[in-house]
Amino acid sequence: MAKKKFKINNPGYCPLCGTDDLQYGTATPDGEDLYYPWTCNDKKCKASGKEYYHLDFCSHLSVHDKNDNFVPSESEEDLVNEKDEN
Ligand SMILES: [Zn+2]
């Protein structure tokens, strides 16, 4: 029996049969990365695997001090200022 090979290696598609009919499980952190376990819903294929994503730091958001005062980040400050102007 010939070994199976990846047809495609794209997010949202089964690497073996190419369908986008995947059943995803819960996102799970794995070190610096995060993966979604998946099972292929194609009746003949039924492959399974993990779809990995790199995590990139964006920003601290929704920060509150000990008195529960909102301390906006740079990007959130823009939103606060826009509200004040209106
Ligand atoms: Zn498949």
Mind explaining what this structure looks like?
With 86 residues, this protein is of the alpha+beta class. It folds into two domains: 1-55, no CATH class; 58-86, no CATH class. It contains one helix and six strands; from the N terminus they run ββββββα. The chain has one helix at residues 74-85, and strands at residues 22-24, 28-30, 33-40, 48-54, 63-64, 70-71. The strands form two sheets. Strands 1, 2, 3 and 4 form a four-stranded antiparallel sheet that branches. A two-stranded antiparallel ribbon has the order 5-6. The longest helix is centred in the C-terminal third of the chain and has 12 residues, at 74-85. The structure holds zinc ion. Zinc ion is lined by residues 14, 16-17, 19, 40, 42, 45, 47. The site of zinc ion (ZN) has 8 residues, from loops.
Brief overview:
The chain is α+β, with helices and mostly antiparallel strands and 86 residues long. It has one helix at 74-85; strands at residues 22-24, 28-30, 33-40, 48-54, 63-64, 70-71.
